[in-house]
Amino acid sequence: MSNNIFLQTKSLCRVFSETGERLEILKGIDFELLKNELCVLTGASGSGKSTFLNLVGALDTPTSGEIIFEGKNIQKMTSKEKDEYHSKKVGFVFQFHHLLSEFTAVENVCVPARIANPFEDLKKIREHAEELLVTVGLGDRLKHLPNELSGGERQRVAVARALMNGPDIIFADEPSGNLDEKNAKMLNELFKKLNEEFNQTLLVVTHDERMAEYATRRVHMRGGVIVPFDSKEAL
Ligand SMILES: Nc1ncnc2c1ncn2[C@@H]1O[C@H](COP(=O)(O)OP(=O)(O)O)[C@@H](O)[C@H]1O
Ligand SMILES: [Mg+2]
Question: Which of 52, 131, 204, 215 could serve as a FRET partner for 173 with CA atoms 20 to 30 Å apart?
């Protein structure tokens, strides 16, 4: 395996049968995410994009198939290794920011580091959080509470929080889904900057065609598998 591959899935399947009905959503996904890619995943609503991100983020367990991160099968990781994968190797940005409403922007960004490194010097953690908020363009909003920020600013705090523990990969699930055009553009440009200037690897699920313009590669979910994006095909 090329060591340029960060994440790989082999014949990944997810069947939901909890409701009694058997729903075969992911039908054998073979996918590779390379280092320094900004890969954009599109696909119709309900096609299984979130299901896929939840699996590769180890938030859910596949019915069959393999997920390999840096040569290691995620399902075979010990619980300690899985915790480390969750807290340090990957970062998530969702459609809803999930910020803690009683915490300021900088305190929210500190949370993942406080959890992953409870004994680390708080001042150091805070300084790093402040740097990240400057990176995402919110150096002048450090002490704002989530309800004192715009929707776009809240999403950028969520991006800073996802970056806090220096993840190898950022997974974003329709991150601009709730934003107006101007804020969506700022978020797209932020992802591009993270990718180009900081070599951040990202896998972004989006319906936003302008985000897709920034992609280093585009893929598409259809019929339970991921295929290369074909612009001639209707989305
Ligand atoms: N926990 C679950 N139980 C049953 N069905 C589910 C569950 N999660 C998702 N699904 C179904 O799987 C399909 C894909 O969902 P999802 O991955 O959220 O799609 P997308 O993110 O592409 O819109 C949908 O039809 C959805 O109803
Ligand atoms: Mg979804």
Answer: 131
Indicate whether residue 59 lines ligand 1 (CB < 6 A): no
Kindly report, residue by residue over 74-116, the tens digit of the pLDDT. 999 999 999 899 889 999 999 998 999 999 999 999 999 999 9
pTM beyond 0.90, yes or no: yes
**Running DSSP on this structure, what letter comes out for residue 29?**
E
CB proximity list for 60: less than 8 A, separation 6 or greater: 14, 51, 54
Q: Are 48 and 224 in contact (CB under 8 A)?
A: yes
20 lines ligand 1 (CB under 6 A): no
Number of H helices, E strands in the chain: 7, 10
Beta-bridge partners for 202: 38, 170
Q: How far apart are CA 88 and CA 166, in angstroms?
A: 7
